[in-house]
Every structure is written in C-alpha cells, then in structure tokens.
Design a protein that fits this description.
Elements lengths: L1 E5 L9 H16 L4 E6 L8 H6 L5 E5 L11 H10 L3 E4 L13 E5 L17 H16 L2 E4 L2 H10 L8 E3 L13 H9 L7 E5 L8 H12 L6 E5 L13 E4 L4 H10 L2 E4 L8 H8 L4 E4 L2 H7 L4 E3 L4 H11 L6 H8 L4 H21 L1
Parallel strand pairs: 1-2, 1-4, 2-3, 4-5, 5-6, 6-7, 8-9, 8-11, 9-10, 11-12, 12-13
Helix pairs in contact: 1-13, 6-8, 7-11, 9-12
C-alpha cells in the first residue's frame, strides 16, 4: 500500500496533533514495514525537529517538504493537485480541514475536535473569520472524505449531532495511543530537570496552552481559595501563555516551555494534577499524570471524563467551589496509584496503527466501488 500522510500541521513546537502524527507514524512504520509512507512536511520544520529524530531510521518512510499553507485556500487548491501527482492508494490528513479535492485518491481525515463549542473558542477570532473557516472546512471534510476518524466517542457524537449526520461505517472512533515508556525517567534526569525550577514546596501541576478553553481563570481562582488553608502548596502552570496573563504571583509559578524530560520530571514530583478544561477532543495530559500514579482532577463531561474513566476526580469546570474541593481531596493519601497507572496501558499506539490501517483499506475499497 502506498500512503501519503500529510504532517504539515506539525510545527516546531510540540502539540497534541504533533504527538498524534509522530507516535502514529512510528507505530505504523514498525507494524507494517511493507507499506510505503510519504510524509508531507511544512517547510518551517527544522532539521533537529523530533519528527526527524523519531522517524528517520524507517526505510519504508520518506519525507517530502510541501510549500503550501496548511490552512486557507491553498490547502484545497494547491494540495489537491499535489496529491493527484503523488497518486497514492490513500491520503491521510490528521486535522479537520482535509484537502478533499484529490481526484481518484481516497481521503482519510482524523478529527481531534471542532476547535470550538457553542460557547467558547480555542483561538483568538476577533472578526469570526476563523470560526467560519473551521466550520465550513469541517462540514466539507465530513461530506467529502471517504473515512473520518474521531479520537473519542464524545467528540464524534458532538460533531455528528451538530451537523445532523447519521452515524455509519464512514465514521469511526479510534482512541489515541499512549507511550508505554512515558513514566520512565532516570533519577539523574529528574534531579537535573527539577533543579532548574523552584520546587522547594509541594505543588499541584497544570499542563496546557494558556487559552480560554483550558479554564485557566477558574484554575487560578480555585487554587487561591485552596491556598487560604494550604499555604504550603504552590501551583505550577506549564504551557505557552497565549492570553498574555500575569500568572507568576504568590504560590503560583508559570513555565512557558519545557522539554519532554522536564515535563516527565514535573509529573513525577507533583502531588496532584489539575485539568478542568472546558472542552477537549481527547486529553493527553490526563494519561500523562496517571502514568505516574498521580491523582487527576478533570471535567465531568466530554472526552476528559471518557478518557479518565473512573480513575479521576470529576468536577463541574464552571464551579470554582467544586475545583477547590477537588484539590483538597487530591492531596489526601489514597491507594489508587497502581490502578491509575494500569488505566493508561489501555491506550496503545500499536492498536491505533492497526485500526488506522483497517480504515485505509476500507477507504480504498469504497473508492473502487464508486
């Protein structure tokens, strides 16, 4: 099978979609060495990028840099022509705005979320143009792609309901995987990483881009209320500050960017993990924290509740009181660390790759019938 996998949405910072792209490709190239994979890259990608470090050794995978925007008109006009020329058996685009005008090449799209819900957006959209683009792009993807993969039942049901589409074989849910070795860090690496951060006191950890949908305002307010009776704790916030908030203050420390090694160290040493996001398509940080056995506080609906299962403290994310009470509960000793670790092992990139290949074959077969 000849596959074109479009990784142009992966950039030089590491996001959830970047993780999906790299981990899926690594698992797929390992599991199916006879399949030929052409990976399309954004020209901004630097040579020391993790995608090269992880995938360079695979003989069944080649990189091809494509100078076409991964959003906007060129993503449809120029990319359609490029994909036709490459003429693979199947084309996979890992985002909601898939180039679908590909002639006889069947398109598989992975939808991680809708980029907004009824009340809140993930991005700055002063004039509403991005919302219009994403809504129309997603509508086109759902209609034109041969197969659409959703990363959780929650996001699948939400989007199909929103666009008034009946479920069927065209739409599938394939959970993201999780790295088996994520919770492995040497004592030396841990000590080196933590020495560079002021961690003289126990801390609650938050990891995520500082955007409105991550519920950062209530996170900070809930922690401040918690601090009134638990002044020995601090809150460590890790994530790029898109909202340009003043986050560093008494008992609160913000870190804009960390290496994967430092992130692991922070998870390994925290008391609990706080993630009451207003909406998510999946929620990798939940599994990251659980892999270290840490108590997790997250939202009581949607993909976060789905991914966490019965292993998290679930809260109404719009209630500062509930979040505060959950932080108090999370610092109490419990015997659930091993259950949390075991839960993360249900999410496998190997299984994800196997399920994705089945989708590829279905898309090809459907294309031949039409």
């Amino acid at each position: 099978m000849k596959i074109v996998f479009d990784a142009r949405v992966h950039l030089n910072y590491f996001s959830g979609i970047s993780r999906y792209i790299i981990c899926l490709l690594e698992a797929y190239a390992t599991e199916f060495p006879a399949d030929e994979i052409t990976v399309l890259l954004n020209p901004a990608i630097q040579k020391d990028n993790n995608i090269y470090k992880t995938l360079n050794s695979f003989s069944n995978l080649v990189f091809k840099t494509i100078d076409a925007g991964h959003m906007g008109p060129k993503n449809y006009t120029k990319m359609g022509r490029i994909i036709k020329r490459l003429n693979p058996d199947v084309y996979h685009y890992p985002h909601l705005d898939a180039p679908v005008f590909t002639g006889n090449v069947p398109v598989v799209a992975t939808v991680h979320d809708s980029n907004s819900n009824a009340n809140i957006k993930k991005f700055d959209d002063k004039f509403g143009l991005k919302s219009i683009y994403f809504k129309q792009a997603l509508k086109t993807t759902l209609k034109k792609a041969k197969r659409v993969v959703f990363v959780s039942d929650s996001i699948k049901n939400e989007i199909l309901t929103r666009f008034k589409l009946a479920d069927g074989p065209k739409y599938s849910r394939i959970y993201n995987g999780f790295e088996e070795d994520f919770n492995q860090i040497s004592a030396e690496d841990k000590a080196e990483s933590l020495a560079a951060i002021d961690l003289s006191r126990p801390y609650i950890l938050f990891v995520g881009q500082i955007r409105e949908h991550k519920n950062i305002y209530r996170v900070v307010e809930a922690f401040k209320r918690f601090s009134e009776t638990n002044a020995e704790y601090q809150l460590i916030i890790v994530g790029h500050n898109y909202l340009n908030l003043a986050l560093n203050e008494k008992n609160i420390q913000h870190i804009d960017k960390v290496s994967n090694k430092s992130l692991k160290a922070l998870y390994s040493a925290c008391t609990a993990f706080l993630f009451p996001s207003l909406f998510e398509g999946f929620g990798f940080p939940i599994l990251e924290a659980m892999s270290y056995g840490k108590p997790v506080i997250t939202t009581n609906y949607g993909a976060t509740a789905e991914v966490a299962g019965e292993h998290a403290i679930l809260v109404n994310p719009e209630s500062v009181t509930e979040i505060t009470d959950a932080i108090v509960q999370s610092i109490l000793p419990d015997d659930k660390a091993e259950a949390r670790k075991n839960h993360t092992q249900k999410f496998s990139w190997k299984s994800n790759a196997q399920a994705i290949r089945k989708v590829y074959l279905e898309a090809i077969a459907d294309n031949q019938k039409s």
